[in-house]
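Troubleshooting: if your tokenizer reports a length mismatch, compare your output against this known-good record of 242 residues.
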Amino acid sequence: MDVDWEAYGWERLADGVGRRRLPGWDATVGLVVGAKALLLYDTGSTLAEGAELRGQISALTAGRRVTHIALSHPHFDHVFGTAAFAGAEVFGAVGVDELLGRERDREALRADAVRHGVGAREATEAVDVLVRPRHVVSGEWTLDLGGRQVLLANVGPGHTGHDLALFVPGEREVVFCGDLVEESGEPQAGPDAIPSRWPDALDRLLSLGGEDAVYVPGHGAAVDATYVRTQREELARRFAVS
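Known-good structure output:
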């Protein structure tokens, strides 16, 4: 179908593939439109942001609803909007389901959101209805969206212990990288990062998309393979790994 991405502040990446850079932390959400299903990659930082995305996607796709969600990694600015998409099948890297179900980890997410400026009430509401992935990806998982197939790949650990990438084949191939790649700032290595494995994760991203793909960072403008390779080398130097 013909989608007018720009009318709602989205960026067209390829036929039936778009993304929006959200305000606040410049986090990316991606959308892949198939004939029978819609896949959303990440869901925003609050329930209100998730609801706004749901309304935009419905308008973009003539009333269709999101049927599948892939969570790139378990940080608040990428997962707190999930509950706004009732009935969607949710996917995450293996271990994310357990992490999002543990009280101490949920509280850590809430505290991190508040520390970064989310209202305490908003953060608490999001944690109270936080959605755990029903489907966990330990290697690769192919989804048929109707007329097109996409690949979910557990390429981590790196930025976190649970990094899930999305590869969308086509005339213009697209790789959604989550925060394994960042363009609007230096990649952030928090307490849950696995720095020694991060360069390997970027190697796996490059093997998915190859030289001609568009690589979509978790924050910032879309980049090419050269950018990802350069960031890989910078991370290897930063963390003193080969």
